[in-house]
């Protein structure tokens, strides 16, 4: 059975036909429109385009935002026009196929647990390091959502009391210390303290981004390397908290920053092992880099759509 997975992102809508082994067979992409109505149409158009070329049975939507506990409604998505919109039903009516909706980090975690770095793991966590932290938990093969569909907000665990302010309103959240954004903050703090060097990070002609810091670290810039070591420390400390609560078999590190994992993962593992309760007397979770990359959200959403059809024996085409 083939299904379509759609990654509804802030800049583009990407849709792929995915087979039962998680392989992507065909992809269409359009820019993300500004209004909710146009967004519905854009999604319906790419799904119909793929359905003309392949016999697809259902659609999964991966959305960066809050999804209702029944997974039919997008409550709020900071980079999309939807506000309390019954997205799943609206798209289903347009494309005449069953539609399931999922938070993008959850969808990515499903892709990794079914076909990627956490394949077969009974308890797996996903920590996606990008602008912030996207977190997800898969327990006994199912996404763990909590009672009201908002768990787990791993990125906003408070690691540093009275630490860096966070847009969520709190201070010292994990993602303020462990993300692409955090790399920039750390470099700025080090520079303000006079720890700066004459390295390429002092070039003010282009904006400083996490990617630029990572690239400078690759090239051996001492300041960028220090920022990476800070990130490694906080990644390890945060993962120890996650492991104390969920005791995962594997933690998958995903997101843009994971491309530089060789620069911080070894050190993060040491901090993790040190900060874990009962360290030395319990098995350590494997910490692995994501394997499904950029298509994880689409593949996971398509997989959830297929599993939904099988579970409900909905007859598609
Ligand atoms: Zn926060």
UniProtKB/TrEMBL annotation:
GO MF entries: ATP binding; glucokinase activity
Documented EC number(s): 2.7.1.2
The UniProt record lists the keyword Phosphoprotein: no
Keywords: ATP-binding, Kinase, Nucleotide-binding, Transferase
GO (cellular component) term, any one: cytoplasm
Highest taxon of source: Bacteria
InterPro entries hit by this protein: ATPase_NBD (IPR043129), ROK (IPR000600), ROK_cs (IPR049874), ROK_glcA (IPR004654)
Pfam family, one: ROK
One annotated GO biological process: glycolytic process
Family: Belongs to the ROK (NagC/XylR) family.
Name this polypeptide is given: Glucokinase
Primary gene name: glk
